[in-house]
Amino acid sequence: MTSTPRGIPSPPMGSGHFTANNLKRACYIIQMRFQLDTRKDLGPIKNQYAVPSIDSNCYGVDYEGYNDEVQQYAMLFGGPGGNCGE
Length: 86
What we know:
mainly beta; four-stranded antiparallel sheet; two-stranded antiparallel sheet; 27% strand; Neprosin PEP catalytic domain-containing protein; Neprosin
């Protein structure tokens, strides 16, 4: 999350690059897990969790789902920021 006063350009988020579905360029989270109160771990299911509406000129987020045994569940995020509106 980024935050600035009104009228001030928003800062970069993550790596400062748009996601472009590229783990080598964008900031990312891998091996995502949620833990139930029963202590059972679950990976997120694509489209199960809402991604808040964001200004696509400033930031992006892409949920990759399950990639492989090493990365498991992955999400990419970031962007250059700038004049993102109110």
